[in-house]
Amino acid sequence: MLLLLLLLLLLLLLLVLLLLPPLAMLRQQQSQGPRWSWLAGLQHRVAWAVLCWAAAWQQRRLEQSSLHVGQSQRQTLRWCLKEAQGPRCPLTESTDMTTFRNHLPLTKASQAQEEESGERLLPPTSNQHHGEASLQATLLGLAALNKAYPEVLAPGGMACVTPTSPWPHPLPWPWHALSQVTHPASKAPGALLLEALRSPGLRALEARTAVELLDVFLGLEANGEKLAEAIAAGNPGAPLPRRAAELREALEQGPRGLALRLWPKMQVAVTLDAGGQAEAVAALGALWCQGLAFFSPAYAASGGVMGLNLWPEQPHGVYVLTPGAPLIELLPVKEGDREEAAATILLAEAQKGKEYELVLTDHASLTRLGQTLSVRGEDMREDVFFEALGRAVVQWPGAKLLDHGCVESSILDSSGGSAPHYEVFVALRGLRNLSEENRDKLDHCLQEVSPCYKSLRFRGSVGPARVHLVGQGAFRELREALAACPSSCFPPEMPRVLRHRHLARLLQSRVLS
């Protein structure tokens, strides 16, 4: 009887919500009287109560699947194989892990493979993942964010400045309107930023990814005067000259701490971690978003959501790996100069304190790939390369790394009879030119972090890495080119190792020095 009463109460609350107009409409009419303000407050409280209930239910489901992680991953494998049935997938739903691994060995995608995949007409992908992990990431992420920053999800506390939000799963009305000042699905990026600038009381800023938030701030600096004029013009009968003056004054003081000067109450920037975001997060934290916390509700890849972030208070993202789709395997990291290839293991077989790389498989692309640089079989991992690049940038006076991309020389046919090497493209702030001495520092740092690379350089089997400085906007154009591909995924991961020749040539055409 008690359960029935609770269900009836829940249905009644939902009915009240459905009978009320959207929060955005209510907020527009709050100035007409206390009645509208009361209705907006009621709708927000009820919507939040329902969301908390849904989050608690998803929390229990996550705990149950984690307790039986082995069984959950076997079910995920069967689902991937079932969804991928066709000429290119001779495996069946009853395939075990050993047969699966033998049939699909872990490989590094070659340029030819990637060019071929880019030419195939693939089914269009949606802007967001709609699996259970993405729903869990959204609901549990909102609950965790509210626990760490209670005022962020108050009405009017958050604005999204990109057309797609960082939350992996779309929430139905009225949940999606809990705190939003802007509604990203219906507006251009410029209009979203303008609306956010008109709201000085914001407590959180949303963008789909950190690299897109970086683009927003770079665009804000470049178009600041136009935005100030638009704000000063305001809506008919509601000019905002004071806010326009505040924007001009904030921009005149430079990029460092700009977000807090524009929005003094702001606490956190919410973006979706999708790989290749480290430079953007570091640049934003050091300059425009200095003093703000960063929160990503999930770690996503082309196959789907692979990790949930339940701890917004952590300075760096800490993620719970999901036992659902995509299928996650763990590849032990090589120790020292050990050459033999290690076998992957499932989540239940992981050992505490060990370091692993992640191998992902989903139904849309039954491949098990890693992203590495290799011109002579050295397999330079992305994280190892980034460590070397970070060491080099520290030695470049006044430079701040905004973005980078790497290409094996064979893709650009740039060896010219010399030894194969890496072509490295960087976007910097604070440095307009790179001396040959500074360029050479990257190659020295690569030798420091990779004994295998050092040995190949000593023997002359690999040539020195070549560093190129690209102009502002080059990597934004690269992301636009990636998004235009038929097989474009959500979120648009920023690949640090480029294997498509046309993408590498795009960066090559934007080289300044």
Automatic annotation (TrEMBL):
Q: Where is the GH3 C-terminal domain?
A: 412-481
A single GO CC term for this protein reads: cytoplasm
Identify the residues that the record assigns to the GH3 domain, covering every copy.
220-285
Annotated InterPro entries = GH3, GH3_C, GH3_N
- Which is one GO molecular function term here? acid-amino acid ligase activity
Q: Which UniProt keywords apply?
A: Signal
Give the span(s) annotated as Disordered: 110-130
State if Signal is listed as a keyword: yes
Q: Where does the UniProt annotation place the signal sequence?
A: 1-26
Mind telling me what this protein is named? GH3 domain-containing protein isoform X2
